[in-house]
């Protein structure tokens, strides 16, 4: 057994071409300083001292005197800046000598390890964590000036795709998830999971579980009999009375390749796996030998990785086009979680995906096929808007009338309805006053939700005597609701237990609609608003106008204030309830015992603006949320920012200046087709950014976060 396991693990390691990550740890300050002197200090002296040394302190940062002990000091915040600038490739500046990737990694590893030792924490934004770094004008400001500059890559399957793969190949097998999304990225499918030793061990265990399902059998007099539909070519390998012949072994291997990888093995693969299987049977016995050998097929790169390596010679621009099968898998995974259907692989083999027009035709075919599951489209809108997080926000006050799952379901259905119309999708998403209200509730059978007819719809401001109807969506008052940002689900998702979360609402608008970048909160800042229930939230946020805080909050506050016309349950309001201290002090019984808090209403000030938008492409003031979101809905700039986010999601990476042509063409396709999401998708998935890569000069490795 040990021999088989070692051989399979070796095969896995060779397949993944990955190196186990070594996490740097320090038990003492002396260990940390020794590592700093060994691997960090020389790099800083060589590449950074020119601008950040004893003679010059650009940005008030001297790396030669910056404390290496982050415990009990403010140096962690400064090191966090160094970490971010290095990881984003912003420092050293372009044109200056650059450290090697190994040197950068050494600095990053030391900073993270020292922060862990000293009890500090930093949420670093690396390349995949914010895609608004590229100036908007470079992408949409005119004719593209550069070509595709994204290198070939191999990345792990997303958790959803891998789960689908296990169930499909393993005939319903349920296995542990080796991959996990990076919570710091804009979208879950951005940034690769780390292929470390625990991950590879989980992959091996899952492969054995799938093989076990595929080879269920019983022995009757030494003859293997299939159970639960296990395929006979595989079961035949377990026959002890009449062992499988070489031809039958090859048949089993061919079956496994076709079943798991949707292709035939090459002659070399057929020989290698046949030899491996026979040797493993001899070393470890028939049962273990067969199962470990078949599991090795499920550990080949194309089973657990997504390949974007391309084939053929580079063109005049130095680009290589993805191989036809790579394109087929990329298209299938762009819209769904399952491997390509037979017709798509046939199109790839027949050369129909060799042109952008052919790829676009395939995309259109999938989009127009009602039987083809396309879960990734709705997943994009859920991740983009973030409204599904409403179920994670605890509510105490009035919680008996709060049904967040139903609110989320209503917003799901509204987006689906807008996509079904497929006209002016972005504008409708931000401006429609139509809404589904408790749509899952069945008026006759009382099934689908525990909410009753007089509960969920209260969040929408409908009168108590409103009667539920299945004729939806309904129209809500146009002066109260306009699009997803005024849906109770979205408002609750960006709220707290008993108050609005104006800051995170503002950050969302700044980054998702205004294309800005809001820096992370410095780890040395206690980011808390004053606890003063007698004051409005807007009044309490005046503390953020202090010089140190305003550098970030000038990007946030006035994009959040318009949404104050809704409370933390997403209910429309004209007044904000605050504690009336004077009335509360008088609210006592004859014996002087307090009888409770008395509240009073203060008119809501919901005025806001579009300050500090790149190039003044969107400017002016807004009186309230309705005015605010409708101006955004009509903004070409905001629409382009939305296209950037769609690009990010479907490419699994951030945009670069070389993607300008693809972004502009996709946006134009959207406009030319009346604001069609299908046209936008067809444009993105047939673009040069989707189909081409640049082959790197150094050996390629699996993406690591």
Automatic annotation (TrEMBL):
<keyword id="KW-0408">Iron</keyword>
<dbReference type="Pfam" id="PF07631">
    <property type="entry name" value="PSD4"/>
</dbReference>
<dbReference type="GO" id="GO:0009055">
    <property type="term" value="F:electron transfer activity"/>
</dbReference>
<dbReference type="InterPro" id="IPR011478">
    <property type="entry name" value="DUF1585"/>
</dbReference>
<protein>
    <recommendedName>
        <fullName>Cytochrome c domain-containing protein</fullName>
    </recommendedName>
</protein>
<dbReference type="InterPro" id="IPR013042">
    <property type="entry name" value="DUF1592"/>
</dbReference>
<dbReference type="InterPro" id="IPR013039">
    <property type="entry name" value="DUF1588"/>
</dbReference>
<dbReference type="Pfam" id="PF13442">
    <property type="entry name" value="Cytochrome_CBB3"/>
</dbReference>
<feature type="domain" description="Cytochrome c">
    <location>
        <begin position="27"/>
        <end position="115"/>
    </location>
</feature>
<dbReference type="Pfam" id="PF07624">
    <property type="entry name" value="PSD2"/>
</dbReference>
<dbReference type="GO" id="GO:0020037">
    <property type="term" value="F:heme binding"/>
</dbReference>
<dbReference type="GO" id="GO:0046872">
    <property type="term" value="F:metal ion binding"/>
</dbReference>
<feature type="signal peptide">
    <location>
        <begin position="1"/>
        <end position="21"/>
    </location>
</feature>
<dbReference type="InterPro" id="IPR036909">
    <property type="entry name" value="Cyt_c-like_dom_sf"/>
</dbReference>
<keyword id="KW-0479">Metal-binding</keyword>
<keyword id="KW-0732">Signal</keyword>
<dbReference type="InterPro" id="IPR009056">
    <property type="entry name" value="Cyt_c-like_dom"/>
</dbReference>
<dbReference type="Pfam" id="PF07627">
    <property type="entry name" value="PSCyt3"/>
</dbReference>
<keyword id="KW-0349">Heme</keyword>
């Amino acid at each position: 057994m040990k021999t088989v396991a070692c051989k399979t693990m070796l095969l896995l390691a060779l397949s993944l071409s990955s190196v186990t990550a070594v996490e740097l740890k320090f038990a003492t300050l002396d260990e940390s300083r020794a590592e700093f002197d060994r691997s960090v200090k020389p790099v800083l002296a060589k590449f950074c001292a020119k601008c950040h040394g004893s003679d010059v302190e650009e940005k008030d940062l001297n790396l030669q005197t910056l404390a290496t002990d982050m415990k009990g000091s403010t140096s962690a915040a400064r090191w966090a800046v160094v970490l971010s600038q290095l990881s984003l490739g912003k420092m050293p500046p372009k044109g200056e000598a650059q450290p090697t990737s190994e040197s950068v990694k050494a600095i990053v590893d030391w900073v993270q390890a020292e922060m862990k030792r000293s009890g500090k924490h930093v949420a670093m934004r690396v390349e995949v964590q914010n895609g608004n770094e590229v100036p908007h004008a470079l992408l949409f400001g005119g004719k593209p000036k550069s070509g595709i500059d994204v290198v070939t890559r191999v990345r792990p399957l997303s958790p959803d795709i891998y789960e689908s793969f296990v169930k499909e190949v393993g005939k319903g097998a349920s296995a542990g998830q080796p991959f996990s999304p990076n919570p710091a990225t804009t979208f879950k499918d951005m940034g690769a999971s780390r292929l470390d030793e625990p991950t590879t061990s989980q992959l091996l265990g899952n492969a054995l579980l799938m093989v076990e399902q595929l080879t269920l059998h019983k022995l009757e007099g030494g003859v293997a009999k299939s159970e639960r539909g296990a395929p006979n070519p595989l079961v035949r390998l377990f026959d002890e009375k009449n062992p499988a012949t070489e031809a039958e072994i090859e048949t089993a291997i061919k079956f496994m390749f076709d079943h798991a990888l949707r292709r035939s093995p090459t002659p070399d693969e057929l020989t290698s796996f046949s030899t491996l299987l026979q040797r493993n049977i001899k070393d470890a016995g028939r049962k273990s030998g067969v199962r470990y050998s078949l599991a090795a097929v499920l550990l080949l790169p194309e089973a657990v990785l997504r390949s974007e390596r391309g084939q053929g010679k580079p063109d005049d621009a130095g680009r290589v086009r993805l191989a036809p099968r790579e394109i087929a898998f990329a298209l299938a995974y762009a819209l769904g979680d399952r491997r390509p259907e037979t017709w798509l692989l046939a199109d790839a083999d027949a050369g129909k995906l060799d042109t952008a027009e052919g790829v676009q035709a395939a995309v259109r075919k999938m989009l127009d096929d009602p039987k083809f599951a396309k879960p990734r489209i709705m997943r994009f809108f859920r991740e983009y808007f973030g409204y599904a997080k409403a179920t994670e926000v605890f509510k105490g006050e009035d919680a008996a009338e709060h049904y967040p799952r139903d609110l989320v379901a209503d917003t799901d259905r509204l987006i689906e309805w807008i996509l079904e119309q497929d006209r002016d999708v972005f504008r409708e998403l931000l401006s429609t006053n139509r809404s589904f209200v408790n749509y899952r509730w069945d008026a006759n059978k009382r099934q689908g939700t525990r909410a009753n007819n007089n509960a969920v719809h209260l969040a929408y401001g409908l009168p108590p005597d409103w009667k539920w109807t299945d004729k939806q969506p309904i129209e809500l008052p146009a002066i109260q609701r306009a699009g997803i940002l005024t849906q109770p689900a979205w408002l609750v998702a960006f709220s707290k237990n008993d108050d609005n979360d104006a800051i995170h609402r503002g950050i969302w608008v700044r980054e998702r609609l205004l294309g800005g970048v809001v820096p992370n909160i410095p780890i040395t800042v206690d980011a808390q608003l004053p606890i003063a229930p007698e004051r409005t939230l807007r009044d309490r946020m005046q503390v953020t106008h202090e010089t140190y805080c305003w550098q970030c909050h000038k990007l946030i506050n006035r994009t959040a204030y318009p949404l104050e016309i809704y409370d933390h349950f997403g209910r429309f309001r004209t007044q904000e309830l605050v504690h009336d201290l004077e009335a509360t002090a008088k609210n006592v019984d004859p014996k002087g015992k307090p009888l409770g808090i008395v509240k009073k209403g203060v008119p809501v000030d919901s005025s806001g603006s579009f300050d500090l938008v790149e190039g003044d492409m969107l400017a002016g003031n807004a009186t309230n949320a309705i005015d605010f979101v409708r101006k955004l809905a009509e903004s070409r700039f905001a629409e382009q920012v939305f296209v950037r986010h769609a690009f990010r999601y479907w490419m699994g990476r951030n945009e670069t200046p070389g993607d300008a042509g693809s972004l502009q063409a996709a946006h134009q396709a959207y406009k030319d087709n009346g604001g069609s999401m299908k046209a936008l998708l067809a444009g993105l998935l047939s673009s040069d950014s989707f189909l081409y890569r640049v082959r790197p000069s150094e050996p390629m490795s699996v993406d690591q976060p």
